[in-house]
Amino acid sequence: MRTQVNFKTINQLAVPATISGIAEPILSITDTAIVGNIPVDGLESLAAAGIVGSFLSMLIWVLGQTRSSISAIISQYLGAGKLEEVKNLPAQAIFFNILLSIVLLLSTIFIVEEIFSLFEATGKILEYCISYYSIRVWGFPLTLFTFAIFGIFRGLQNTFYPMIIAIIGAVLNIILDFVFVYGIDGYIPAMYLEGAAWASLISQAVMAILVFILLLKKTEISLKLVFPLNKEIKRLVIMSLNLFVRALALNAALIIAVREATALGDKYIGAHTIAINLWLFAAFFIDGYGAAGNSMGGKLLGAKDYKGLWKLSKKIITYGMVISLILMAFGFIFYRPIGHIFSNEAVVLNTFYGIFFIVILGLPMNTLAFVFDGLFKGLGEMKYLRNVLLSATFLGFIPSLYLGKYLGWGFYAIWIAFVVWMLIRGLALVWKFRRKFKPLVQNS
Do residues 261 and 414 touch, judged by C-beta distance below 8 A? Predict the structure, then answer.
């Protein structure tokens, strides 16, 4: 049966994917907003939450790439009508991924102080980083497990169930944040930053349990480990390794940005924490159409429907741009109130307002990169995605950042470098897609 590429079918995938996609940044934003308003050491707590959040995001993004690989392979086999051939693949992929995450968790837990010292964290900020991370890190394997199953559902053209799980997790996290951070008189003591960590960990555990139940009840995919290895395990590993390297390059940019902001001073890392959380929130918001491209793109490629694939690319970028323009308008209209959600520290807010316009103006370029990034993952073009990110980071972001620093641009240099980074990523993907698939459309 031919896949329909229209507003309805795209948004049936994109809207739930958008809602589930923003769950993770909502968790971070909630922590940032609540932690930033802690009455005791609020600025230090905000800085620590930002540093630890960046490091954990790196770990999750680096090892969470199996999700995209599983989604691509399942959607392609679904489009080709051969889903039965890869039913035992997800269990094998998830088992090895979780095993690797546990090894990484155990290897970092004993060198926490050394890790966050590399981020220029010192004194009370370093102390808070250690206590916050020591709790939140245990949610790392749970998040990877949840993400991998989200990938299975996405490959099956189902983004609705991940949306439900993400909403439950986000709402639960917000409630627990208020309860644990500020406490309840006579019942629960205020735990401040550690309370935010416990709220995130419990929410991640609940999401993992619920998504596991849904997979068992609503699909025929089994998580029972069965041998021999599936024939597609080699391709999945190669795709995941390419995305692994890509994620390292991506996080190199994010971590260098955090390190440079921390080196500038407490007010800068506080402002950067707010800005990067808003940047990630917008990224995941726009990425809903990248998720639709991921699911439908793989299926259309499996069916060799190149005209449908070309039509899909045009529609998802159009819809994504509309969303980015709405977000831009929202950002400029509520320019100052947005900052007050996260902090009442005047010195942090003034620093944040100084660069927030760059975050907003960069949204269309981000859209181009995120939407085509999702589409390319569905097509299995992981090697090219790897090369684009390596080029954008080491030939774009890092040179721009340190040139700006040399020229005395200070905090502005970090966010100008982000603009350069995203511009390279977006344009490179558009060029490759047109070059590869336009001839296939013309000949089909």
Answer: yes
List pLDDT tens digits, range 249-285.
988 898 899 889 989 988 898 899 889 888 988 887 7
Q: What backbone phi and psi angles, to 5 degrees, belong to 413?
A: -60, -40
Q: Which residue has tokens 């159009």?
A: 318
Average pLDDT, the chain: 86
Model pTM score: 0.80
Residues forming beta bridges with residue 371, ordered by sequence position: none
Q: How many whole angstroms separate alpha carbon 353 and alpha carbon 338?
A: 10
Instruction: Give the DSSP H/E element, type plus range, for residue 295.
Output: helix 266-302
φ, ψ for residue 164, nearest 5 deg? -60, -45
Contacts 24+ apart (CB under 8 A), 94-98: 94/66, 94/145, 94/148, 94/149, 94/223, 95/225, 97/63, 97/66, 97/144, 97/148, 98/141, 98/144, 98/145
**DSSP alpha helix (H) spans, 37-88:** 42-63, 66-79
What count of residues does the chain have? 444
pLDDT tens digits, 107-165:
887 888 888 887 777 788 888 888 888 888 888 888 888 888 888 888 888 888 988 99
Give the number of other Cβ atoms within 10 Å of residue 202's Cβ: 16
d(CA 125, CA 266): 9
* Distance of alpha carbon 204 from alpha carbon 209, whole angstroms: 9
Q: What is the three-class DSSP state of 220?
A: coil
Cβ count near 29 (within 10 Å): 21
| pLDDT, tens digit, 9 for 90 and up, residues 26-72 | 666 677 778 777 766 667 887 888 788 778 877 776 666 777 888 88
Number of other residues whose CB lies within 10 A of the CB of residue 106: 10
**DSSP classification of residue 178:** I
pLDDT at 95 over 90: no
Q: For residues 23 and 2, give the distance between their C-alpha atoms in angstroms, rounded to a whole number.
A: 32
